[in-house]
Amino acid sequence: MKPQPITAPLALWLDPETPLTEGYAMLLEEAGWAVLTVSTLEALAHHAPHAQAVVVRLGEDTARLQAVQQTMRDSGVQLPVVCRVERQALELAVQATQEGAAAVIAHQESRVEVWQRLHEGLQNQPVNAAQARRVRQVVFVDPVSQHLLALARKVAQADVTALLVGPTGAGKEVLARVLHDASPRARGPFVALNCAAIPENLIEDMLFGHEKGAFTGAHREHKGVFEQANGGTLFLDEIGEMPMHLQSKLLRVLQEKQLTRLGGQVTIPLNVRFVAATNKDLRRAIAEREFREDLYYRIATFRLTLLPLCERPGDIIALALQCLMHNEPGKAWQLDPQAQAMLLQYPWPGNVRELENVMRRAMVLCPGHTITPEHLMFDEAFDAGALQLQAHGRTDVDLPWPAKPAVAATSLPPAPSPAPAATPTAPAAAAPAAAAGIPSDLESATRMSEHQMIMATLASTPSKTEAARRLGISPRTLRYKLAQLREHGLGMAVAN
Q: Which of 291, 346, 359, 424 has the fewest Cβ atoms within 10 Å of its own Cβ atom?
């Protein structure tokens, strides 16, 4: 039986003793669910990314439940599991619930009743489907990233602190969510706080909370992020920016696993997984007396390092495609091979965050569904102050960034060939020397923006007539604007 190509939620049915028959499958579909029977854990792992739930029949213990949960963790998927047990196996039902089963039912019940119960269980646990989608969307394609992902999943199973180290924009919060979603705490909350984004006089309140009347303006009690994350994971980003006097209080909370709110007397027990991240060299900060050494060793039980994006090129194309699909899920976006080559050669000083910006600009500029080099506008070109155009096949204009060694063709993932272009295309690049300065007023900024658009259109069209048509102006108006730009000293970087 194959998964149904409909919008009904799909559940995997694992029951080696009594396989599901066609008749029962039809009844289940009438109840609003598509069902796929699987007989092995390998088949379960294969189909789990496309399912919304798993139904498994237990034997005399919970070994099968544990095997299913481990298989899904290894596959990077978090789905609710409904266990079917013998009606008289009360202790087994209780144990299965304690070990994470979303629901436990008697397998003698009719299949429609089972499915109705499953539907109710999913409605009560909306977090699971979101977690499953989030885990599947994480991109770890490069061998270095795959090794990091495998290590992170192992660390996730142990209830220990973790320190994520990497440059800004490299994806530290994504990795923190992997640690949460792959852990036994996946059903609990994931709470994130950026220590660098909170004023120093507020961060203590954000961390530990306060009681009503603790200070002027404290009209009601407030739970800090530690309490909000109880039963789940607390992620403190940019922990190297935390003030020294708060580091000692954080250390005490981590050691004692309890806290007292500001203005309070009651000690509150905590059950929180702690994950921290930084882009600073904390060992140097320790030497410069900016970070406590004892706190460092408390938070760095496992240290996971994220490399800059340029050092894991296998992730670049996959991340670019993910950004396209995430922002426009209804479109079948493609990257042509020349655009892929440009993305792979760019140094990405802003890492994944910069890549997302470049792809969003490309989506704005692209009239169809295939991103080509003319649609790629890189941040380094913007930093130069304006725009310089480079047409394919030209050797008189350099790339706007230091060229990296050519990437072998085998490193490019297969991509559908785009339709033949009528003319050479041109990527957005750096600025002409005459316009390198930052505009000093609105009129200059408008003129520079107009100049950039005209230049880009001229470089991507076979004639000025076609360029005028794309710009929505007459050829005469275009000639007038070009003459105006020359008068203002903005030379043309494209052949007439």
A: 424
470 to 286, 457, 466: CA distances (angstroms): 58, 7, 6
In a domain, 3, yes or no: no
Domain boundary among 72, 100, 131: 131
Q: What tokens were used for 25?
A: 């499958």
Identify whether residues 276 and 326 lie together within a single domain: no
Q: Is 206 exposed, middle or buried (0-12, 13-18, 19+ CB in 10 A)?
A: middle
Distance, CA of 166 to CA of 347 (rounded, Å):
16
Residue ranges making up the domain that contains 68: 10-131
Last residue of a domain, one of 72, 107, 131: 131
* Same domain assignment for residues 338 and 213: no
| Residue 496 belongs to some domain of the structure | no
Task: Confirm if 493 and 389 have CB atoms less than 8 A apart.
Answer: yes
The 3-state secondary structure of 286-324 reads HHCCCCCHHHHHHHCCEEEECCCHHHCHHHHHHHHHHHH
Looking only at the bridges linking them, the beta strands covering 190-194 and 53-57 are: unpaired
Structure tokens that stand for 472 in this block: 């929505």
The answer to whether residue 443 is domain-embedded is: yes
Residue 134: beta bridge partners?
A: none
Predicted confidence (pLDDT) per residue in 458-490, tens digit:
777 778 888 888 887 877 778 777 776 665 554
Contacts of 137 (CB under 8 A, 6+ apart): 322, 326
pLDDT digits (tens, 9 = 90+) for 58-80: 888 888 998 998 888 877 777 88
